[in-house]
Write a structure and sequence with these properties.
Structural class: alpha+beta
Helix content: 10-25%
Strand content: 25-35%
Shape: globular
Distance between the termini: 72 Å
Strand order of the largest sheet: 3-7-4-6-5-8
Number of helices: 4
Length: about 250
Amino acid sequence: MATMVRRLLPLFCCLLLLPACAPKKTSVTRYPEASKPGIRPWQKPYTVNGQRYEPLDSHTGFVQTGVASWYGSDFHGKNTSNGEKYDMNAMTAAHKTLPLGVYVKVKNLDNGREAIVRVNDRGPFVKGRVIDLSYAAAKKLGLDAIGTAPVRIEALGYRGSGAEQYTAVANYDEGNYTIQVGSFKEYGNAQRLSENMKKQFGFSEIHMTDVDGATFYRVYAGKYTSLQSAEEAEKTFSESGYPGSFVVALE
């Protein structure tokens, strides 16, 4: 009997301490993914400081301008949102809504320097900032000393087998763009906003998307033929009560 108790005791303790005794999550490899991963827990909508964020299910056509910052030694070795350990010397970044694992091109608008980074974390959650860079990426872009800089980011895609499989846009300014001004679970809410946007701007569409089994209705407003005009409109929307607005490329 005593032998049986000794054998069962570790199991009993483990059950009491779950999830502490659960197997540790295996770190995701830092080698580029060969294809877009499926929806995982870190792709679910989340809330920070009362603000709800809905990760995009696709990077296609995503461009954005704003302020970039960086994070370094205080976070080195800590878990990122996709389970990796943050490496301040790797070319990575944090973004609030882009799919994790996607590569983005970041251009410092002050000095023209460019860098390609992989998104593996969420943030930054400071108003006006659009991307948080690793120390290595910040150094390459020349903003490690000053802390922040205005940037333009463009989602490129995924990469695998050591070869670049994404393609860059031939012209960053010309094209057809719109602004995503809202995302709703209830179609009626999206419809009301879309009708209001259509009256004001002449164009508005509702795009239905699935995020981890949940349906969301995203509202697009306005049509713009250049990235510059779309970015100016984005600022106007953000200042007019739609702070989560961002530019989307129309197909």
